[in-house]
Amino acid sequence: MRTKLIGLLVLVASSLSFSYTYTNWTTMTGAKTIAVAPTIWGGAIDGLGSSTLDLNTAFGFGDKVDVVLNLSKFEPLSDFTWAGIEVMPRYALTDNFVLALKLGTDFEALELSPQIHLCKELDKIVLELNAAIDLSTASDFKEGYIWASHGVVYKMIPDIFYPFIEFNPYVSYGYFETEVNFSIDPGFWFGVKDTPHQFSLSLPISGFKSGETISVGLNAWYWWSFEY
What we know:
twelve-stranded antiparallel beta barrel, mainly beta, Porin, 1 helix, two-stranded antiparallel ribbon
């Protein structure tokens, strides 16, 4: 899915986060705000060669509009293979309901993914939900994934430590077969109170279908934001 910007910016602490759970994008970046969020999507712990590193940067142009750039996708443990770039403009219909369209390419095929991002924050609980369909021009849009990610967050220590769990079902479809599967991702969100520094860690568990082997992955993202 910088350094030149630093001299032009006034850095201001911000409490904004794109999510508490690992997978979801939820609230907007914020007006006149830039956020940097390097993200690791890890494969099974005993086979991290499938990991992907995303260099995400989000630009908030107003309270209702932002754009997320994944400047480079890398597979750092597989000879640091480059895997493409992504851009995702988003528009907030309300504070809790966001429409998004992700476009990505590895210069061989174009990926297209319309999405919705929902968030409901209560006193002690946060509910997060993303849903999307991922398509690729390489298959003339005849193959793809329909997926959702639902996260439940418990505010154990306000602004510092929130455990969460995600349930991530998906349907892959194509020319020959359709597959339904899911993963369960327990994890933790950490914040440094009154600063823009945030971190999320999760352990995606998959392989629940008959005949599959249970595997556990390791995911992490770091988030730093500032106003300009």
